[in-house]
Amino acid sequence: MTMLVALLAIASAPVRADEAEDRAAALVAKMTREEKIAQTMNAAPAIPRLRVPAYEWWNEGLHGVARSGHATVFPQAIGLAASWNTDLLEQVGTVTSTEARAKFNIAGGPGSDHKRYDGLTIWSPNINIFRDPRWGRGMETYGEDPYLTGELAVGFIRGLQGDDPQHPRTIATPKHLAVHSGPEPGRHGFDVDVSPRDLEATYLPAFRAALVEGHAGAVMCAYNSLHGLPACAADWLLDGRLRGDWGFKGFVVSDCDALYDMLHFHYFRPDEAGAAAAALKAGHDLNCGNTYRALGQALDRGEADEALLDQSLVRLFAARYRLGELERPRQDPYARLGADDIGAPAGRKLALEAALQSLVLLKNQGATLPLKPDTRLAVIGPNADALAALEANYQGTSVDPVTPLVGLRQRFGQQRVSYAQGAPLSAGVPVMIPETALRNDGKVGLKGEYFDNPDLAGTPRLVRQDRVISFNWDQVAPASGVDKNRYSVRWTGELLPPGPGDYTLAVRVARCFDCTGHDPVRLYIDDELVIAGNAEDKRVATGVHNADGRNVEAQIRFEDTRPRRLRLEIEHQGQDQGLRLEWLAPAEAQLAEAERVIAQADAVVAFVGLSPDVEGEELKVDVLGFDGGDRNAIGLPAMQQALLERAKTSGKPLIAVLMSGSAVALNWAQQHADAILAAWYPGQSGGTAIAQALAGDFNPGGRLPVTFYHSTKDLPAYISYDMKGRTYRYFTGTPLYPFGHGLSYTSFAYDAPRLSTPTLKAGEPLRVSVRVRNSGDRSGDEVVQVYLEYPQRPQSPIRSLVGFERLTLKPGESRELNFELDARKLSDVDRAGQRAVEAGNYRVFVGGGQPGTGAPGGEAAFSIQGRMPMPK
């Protein structure tokens, strides 16, 4: 063996846990205090003298790699949760981490500097409990149940990190610890007064599962305070529960600027040095932001110990050593991953499968679905052709996204599908100008001229017809042969108003993070400049600019429906991420247009719901029903409701497809629509999945991960984190659709469940066995759910999910399932927050939903003797 080969063999040897920490400690010992402090913030600079490359810790992978160009875009997290399939979540995590590794390698691989969104530390999954449908970020979670959330999180984390804990593909970072779920407008200074019972029974179990069972390598602390103590400075939470009770060995990162918030919103400390010292002493390691720049001052004042700083840095550099990110040479098992692994066929296939499994059939009166192959469809609704309703937030850029309109045309044939937008999302919220209103030389859409410079100069590199102007160009080139960082585009054609009246025209430029510049846009109507500006200087000609610096708008009146010449220009000089050409059209004109296409059809498919434009993270949205990314009403917005009602007057079958990231009170639709399908934000293949389900090529089998309520009046105060009256575990009313609900094109039957024993001692496990059979005439998926019902105790939930499994059965096929209920699953939490297995008489229900909801299944009784406290 030559010396070089020997050195390579040593360098490529697996990094043991203690070895990674030893190497990290040795490296940290060589750093100056200034170098150490610089490494505690997310944009860690290079240390050339120690051969430490620069590393940006911030990367996102909620439902595919985000914000770094093309990637496989899976259904948003709430849609993945609707699959109730832990194996699927692990596969999605595997594709996400594979693509993250590929992008890391393309950016230089081990030993190279890496900028934001090129790294291997993924700040996902979001496992906060979706306690209230009004929370705008609930779409990023796995729903309202702590057990379901924990199990899905474990699957996703295993996919992200891989099966080699000493050399993970990426490091997962479940967030936001703890008790964090809005309201968004006040999230930076919100203080949660949570009871010990609710903390232990609802808000912490998923984090415990993610870290104890999933072995996530990192965790993110939240913006909010708990009983007056900011989460990122809560030593009882970080050093106590996290590292003590749960034995967590990884690192803690703050939500971005959470340490800044400790000073400026919580008023927890008088200056940055005090805030930094409090976080460090509590067990926090990595500051997303720059408050830790004051650590030197904190050390000088004696408010923190440099040994604690060293301890945090050892955790951080041990993670970098395990990832193999720091050094060359190394036989990297992931070195082969590259461009061919991004958007690969296997990933595209999985994105479709995930979208299919996320679909939940809520109603199917008179077997309206599946549709016959020769059915002529009228497709209506603001989400029928909306890219944003596919990709959601924290998203990558889809290579070839399929909207519902396109998917239905591909499945049923262009000639059998007519389309009208029919309505906006809500009053005051512009939506994409539909293809029906854009023409160029008699063809649908506008002519796009793409230039390889930012000045619209010379001959276009490419000329093409763009059906609509709705593009996510985040870190990607808009066309072949065009530099993603320097281009310009001119679109020309005609705008066809559906009726006379007042219009709002808008150019939405997708915002960028930490921008050094924004993209100028100009819109001309009949050669008159009506919009000119960008998100930076807010210049407008005839119009206004909205508060969040993204839309440039103009109001214009059309006295008739004659075509108007249209020209739109964008000069890509900054870091903005694409654009949409939007409008608000007169309501009656849009409804009349919908009526005309419905008259030509046999059935109506209405794509209604919400959008990441109105629900999401800290949005600058203040229109009726929406507040800063949250909602203050959970019903379908009135203009969409009017569209459904107008469609129903036709007498033709009405199928409502709900696209949203949260529960919407579809009370009218439940009474009057013939079928309802919940599609969430289904990812790049969402349109294909929806079309296959409506056509019967796929039998929907998803289940609701949240309760659908009838009204906001059913809910406690949004600002309260008390679980009384919330979620299926504590809500005593009648829901519109219960947690766990979902229909099928076939039917299933259950034998009575069998228990391993009718009586057990506290601490012993209980085995539950059941046989389930497809009693219908189609193959289909059933989600078998196991619920525990407790003895009558004031603090106990009504019932709790303690097991589930998704399976596919052919007609007549049956399968025996066994569920092992260990002591933790059989435990309960008292008012003091102590978890224990308690004596008493219990019941267990096994079926296709909750007991008492009409779901098939059966129950059995058993008793527990004695009491056994459980560890935290």
Automatic annotation (TrEMBL):
<dbReference type="InterPro" id="IPR037524">
    <property type="entry name" value="PA14/GLEYA"/>
</dbReference>
<dbReference type="GO" id="GO:0008422">
    <property type="term" value="F:beta-glucosidase activity"/>
</dbReference>
<dbReference type="InterPro" id="IPR036962">
    <property type="entry name" value="Glyco_hydro_3_N_sf"/>
</dbReference>
<dbReference type="InterPro" id="IPR001764">
    <property type="entry name" value="Glyco_hydro_3_N"/>
</dbReference>
<keyword id="KW-0378">Hydrolase</keyword>
<comment type="similarity">
    <text>Belongs to the glycosyl hydrolase 3 family.</text>
</comment>
<dbReference type="InterPro" id="IPR013783">
    <property type="entry name" value="Ig-like_fold"/>
</dbReference>
<dbReference type="InterPro" id="IPR026891">
    <property type="entry name" value="Fn3-like"/>
</dbReference>
<dbReference type="Pfam" id="PF00933">
    <property type="entry name" value="Glyco_hydro_3"/>
</dbReference>
<protein>
    <submittedName>
        <fullName>Beta-glucosidase</fullName>
        <ecNumber>3.2.1.21</ecNumber>
    </submittedName>
</protein>
<keyword id="KW-0732">Signal</keyword>
<dbReference type="InterPro" id="IPR002772">
    <property type="entry name" value="Glyco_hydro_3_C"/>
</dbReference>
<dbReference type="Pfam" id="PF07691">
    <property type="entry name" value="PA14"/>
</dbReference>
<dbReference type="InterPro" id="IPR011658">
    <property type="entry name" value="PA14_dom"/>
</dbReference>
<keyword id="KW-0326">Glycosidase</keyword>
<dbReference type="Pfam" id="PF01915">
    <property type="entry name" value="Glyco_hydro_3_C"/>
</dbReference>
<feature type="compositionally biased region" description="Gly residues">
    <location>
        <begin position="848"/>
        <end position="857"/>
    </location>
</feature>
<dbReference type="InterPro" id="IPR036881">
    <property type="entry name" value="Glyco_hydro_3_C_sf"/>
</dbReference>
<feature type="domain" description="PA14">
    <location>
        <begin position="441"/>
        <end position="602"/>
    </location>
</feature>
<dbReference type="InterPro" id="IPR017853">
    <property type="entry name" value="GH"/>
</dbReference>
<feature type="signal peptide">
    <location>
        <begin position="1"/>
        <end position="17"/>
    </location>
</feature>
<dbReference type="Pfam" id="PF14310">
    <property type="entry name" value="Fn3-like"/>
</dbReference>
<dbReference type="InterPro" id="IPR044993">
    <property type="entry name" value="BXL"/>
</dbReference>
<feature type="region of interest" description="Disordered">
    <location>
        <begin position="848"/>
        <end position="872"/>
    </location>
</feature>
